[in-house]
Amino acid sequence: MLNVLKKISLLFFLFFAFSHQSRSQHPVSFFTKEESLLVRSNLNTQPLLNESFQALKKETDFWLNKEVDVPLPKDPAGGYTHEKHKANYLLMFNSGVLYNITGEQKYADLVRNILLKYATLNPTLKNHPQATSTSPGRIFWQALNDANWMVYSGMAFDLVYNGLNEADRKIIEEGAFKPEVDFVTKDLSPWFNLIHNHAVWATAGVGMIGIATNNQTYIDLALEGTQHNGSSGFYALLDHLFSPDGYYTEGPYYTRYALLPFIIFSNALNNKYPSKNIFTYRNSILKKAINTAIQYSNTDGKFFAFNDAMKDKDYTTGEMVMALDIYTKAYGLDTTFLPIAKKQHNLLLTKSGIQLAEALNNPKNKSVVFPYKTIENTDGAKGNKGGVSILRSGEGKELTSLIYKYTSHGLSHGHYDKLNINLFDKGNEILQDYGAARFVGVEQKYGGRYLPENTGFATQTIAHNTMVVDETSHFNGNEKIAEQFWPVKNYSNFKNEKVLAISVSDSNAYKNVILKRSLFMLTLPDQPKLIIDIFHTQSSKTHQYDLPFYYLGQFIHSSVEYTYAKNTMYPLGQKNGYQYLWKEGEAKVIDATVQMTFLNERDFYTISTLVTDTASILFARIGANDQNFNLRRDPAFIIRKNSTSPSFISVIEVHGKYDPVNEVTSNANSIVQKIQELENSSLFSVVKITLKTGELIVVECKNDNSTTSNHQYRYNNTDLIWKGPYLILLNGKNINY
Amino acid sequence: MLNVLKKISLLFFLFFAFSHQSRSQHPVSFFTKEESLLVRSNLNTQPLLNESFQALKKETDFWLNKEVDVPLPKDPAGGYTHEKHKANYLLMFNSGVLYNITGEQKYADLVRNILLKYATLNPTLKNHPQATSTSPGRIFWQALNDANWMVYSGMAFDLVYNGLNEADRKIIEEGAFKPEVDFVTKDLSPWFNLIHNHAVWATAGVGMIGIATNNQTYIDLALEGTQHNGSSGFYALLDHLFSPDGYYTEGPYYTRYALLPFIIFSNALNNKYPSKNIFTYRNSILKKAINTAIQYSNTDGKFFAFNDAMKDKDYTTGEMVMALDIYTKAYGLDTTFLPIAKKQHNLLLTKSGIQLAEALNNPKNKSVVFPYKTIENTDGAKGNKGGVSILRSGEGKELTSLIYKYTSHGLSHGHYDKLNINLFDKGNEILQDYGAARFVGVEQKYGGRYLPENTGFATQTIAHNTMVVDETSHFNGNEKIAEQFWPVKNYSNFKNEKVLAISVSDSNAYKNVILKRSLFMLTLPDQPKLIIDIFHTQSSKTHQYDLPFYYLGQFIHSSVEYTYAKNTMYPLGQKNGYQYLWKEGEAKVIDATVQMTFLNERDFYTISTLVTDTASILFARIGANDQNFNLRRDPAFIIRKNSTSPSFISVIEVHGKYDPVNEVTSNANSIVQKIQELENSSLFSVVKITLKTGELIVVECKNDNSTTSNHQYRYNNTDLIWKGPYLILLNGKNINY
To answer: Has the ipTM of the complex gone over 0.85?
Structure first.
């Protein structure tokens, strides 16, 4: 009997314990009560933590005892109602955090009052009057922003759960949240089930509201999608949006954006269900994703702007502050991130925020430079859809980064830019990717949306530093087709950091044309850094091949005699982005090593390129037909060849110094004297580059990428013998090994 | 007898003492032996001083025991021989400084070896093969650089004087120095006697060699010119190149350059002849000049780039390091300069260098911002040739500076830009002066010389933010005529820093056209900063009036419907700089308040301008006919009116915030709703500006600039009564007093 009673009481205990945990433990979405108390007790000893707390408090206190407007949705991004609703969800979240740290009811009341207004507003909403996309929003012009609202409002509700009475909770759950959840999971279910960054936000939003309101149905919808068959939902998104090594398929700009709902919801999920081990899911895919995201930034913190991307976005954004915090919580402190945390100068008010604050105070951690390194990522959920390589040389301010992109299309934000390269040096963008044509949040610019020039120009192949055949974009600019193909890497070798090598081919961007681009980044002693760019084409018919270099900086000199657009200027073409380029100058060249030198800040850069037979050199500038001045007036240097299978062999050189303050210039001239193509057969490609300081020979095997095959080539009455797909000789000496 | 002996011995003593001082006291040009020993003893206690010492030592030690090349002059600026000779004189100077501080003979030997090579080279030289100017050089392409060489080599000789034997001294004096002195004082005597920055260098060079070699003839030549009649030479240059309040007539860029020989030679002269009191000469004109120079810089340290000027020149240049050091020596420590010394992070190895180092270490001197203020300078030796006013509002990063230029022409480096304005805000240039078209020291760009586009475009009126009548430049672009005239200030009033006012008229830039521009810079509570720009014209004939605004930033929006250059683009005109502008767009406007908003970094700026009757709005871009890509592709917004005496009434507004990192935009729209000209009679000009937040009325008296006259104007059935040349009402309230 005693035993039975014991059992029963144990069952009761378990029942209550479990029900308490699953039904009532709040907060749990952002942090737990214990964590919030730990933060409170550390405020006085951690100055940076306190600074972040005071900033949050100042912002939030401004609204205490004020009517917060919850306006009828009307304006596009940048407009009043858009910005207000955005400010509201952030305010609610912040106030919720403060409620737990300070224990003061007024912060809960602030959230309550706003959420009650949404509970009145939301049930009345139809599609937003400014909705233009296929996924219209209700509170905002697009559903994506509604999903943002759900994530933060959900967290806010959870954070002040214990400060609300049952009746208010019910009103808010039914009025503020249910219409939004129903809208995205029912009206917009195809969108909700997408494999796309929007869906990450949408599932995280629904899941967060589920956790906040103890609604298991919502949580399941979030994790599994509406079809519950593994094809959609949060897990499916973790499975499909990242490659196995953590590359996010839409590119670095959207990584940052998509990471936030991934980690913020994973954090909530982990707090509620630690046993789900979400942070180790798929071999700790989120750990890899965060590491990768940061490697895809310039030394100034800005994310590399390929695909649709705003160039001024850097790792000090709220998303990345959140990422570093939750990374620390999930995977432990990684001191290599401290230089980034230092630049962010903003900590979350969490346990890991305290950890970061302590680490930043520790004099041992004074290293001020994040260890950028040469890395290579695959693309695609299985890692079999091409990839990206970032070749790096130098350290700190002297870092040079060459980005070579041979990914899959990158969903709806992809550009038609197979085999594109971008160059960063000394913190500056040197050969640019245009990024996106958009002014996020600037109402006067098309409501802050993507501008027509984005598809018209920025996504087109001619807007990139890669080959355009016959003035048409890759895959004819058709996204559906582009999604099905990706380039194939022939080889890459980064063992010798002074001689980085990679080669990739593409045979799908154009029908019946094979493109192959091999890049060698050489850091030779006492020499300018050299990037050898061997771009082969192969076709059976004559085509017009255009290879642009979008250089940033002041044109200094070109070796060619060109005709400048004197009293009239015309666009370079009529379609596929060409209509947006003015033709400023043109040169006809026969058999020559053409050079063009430009100055970016205090460094000179020269592109030397071989012309065999004839070519045109075009000096173009963005801006033609740009009725609304939406595009930057940046220049391009374009090499045009009309032939069946021309080679484009170029050397990109980082040289010299211009010191305008002290008026001293050094090494303003290129060391490249001549480029020759000695052979381009089915077996070998052989290039000779004559420098002022010596001679470089690059031999590539055309049909054997094995790293173990032995090869032999006769040059200058000597038999060159080597192993692997390529050989680089400097003054007769193999410098690869 | 005893007395006689005493007298004789006294005479002997005096003779030796005097001869010792006048003939043999070395060093004296840069510092004295005592000073150098003081530096030595402070190296261990002053880290920044030691850092500067180590940097100097490292640079110099590299050349010890090496053959230093003294090549036959051949190349233009930026080329090898040019850069080498420049490096040589700096090396000799540095080595001379080190010789005294360390006492090590090797540094004297280094100077000796190089100077002996010059002693062989210089007597053989004819005019430089690249000489193109009317003042050809011998070691360099222009005599100016030879003068630089004389200043530094002279100092170097003096610094190692005691480490040379008599024979070497003689060889150097005769071989290295005499040919150069003879060349500039005899062959180039008209140039040597000019009132111009070149002559400052030339006189300082000859004088420095005089001091170094104890040659009184040279010193006299330097001080008095070759005619010895007060019309030329160093004193005459001090008299004529600065206004009484210290404005240097060529503008800030050349101030910095001309200041160096002024202060460096004054320092030497003062060391040798303290009784000449050169530093208090002309009411301490050099003190005023240095103070003024620094006020003419942006918060990032760059000098305002009006007249011929390179934009990247800032106050961290060697010249300004020297200026601050010698200022401190001559006038005592001024702690307001410490933020500048801190940014320079480079101290001279002198007694005042030690003083600055100590002051920088003192925690009391932690202020990090130089106190920029609203200032006004006259131009001309007597202060009667116009002037410049810099209207400032805000502090630190929020500083706004409006530069209003109404100087005389500014000698050969002047631009045709009467009544020009430039705007800086938050550290950025907002309404730009193009500066000079030149790449100093870049050989590929026309040998580093002024480019043809400098006279073709940069100096022309249309390259500035001021009025162009009938597509011709002021004074028809004739320097000789331009030199004879300057605008006349009507009034200015900076007593109320929230309402800064200035008005200037010009009746000479164009025959039979009077130009009058009044500017009011308003810093109203909780409002965007507003600059009211009332530009009146007066003529009896119809003219074409163009008022450009060279805005820097991204065009955001314009209220006008314009036609964009679609498939062809043409230059804006054929001559006087117009041929370098592309016409990107044009609008015909009737009776409207036209607005154009642009974004610079994170701030919005709007120009609102009144069109009464008709006007054209032109969207232009620099770059037409720019065969060698020498010009920046910057935009301009031009208001064109064809009429007899049109008014151009504009409001320039600093508003809003764009935060691309957090994607938040605020106040992106102008608060100006309407501009009206209520009256423009012979008595009054009355302008009404309707803001979202109220109404501004600006009444100006047309013919009475007295600050004491009483005026009355009937507006809105009320009699406005005020004293002085203008009245500004905000919502009916006089805000000026």
So the answer is: yes
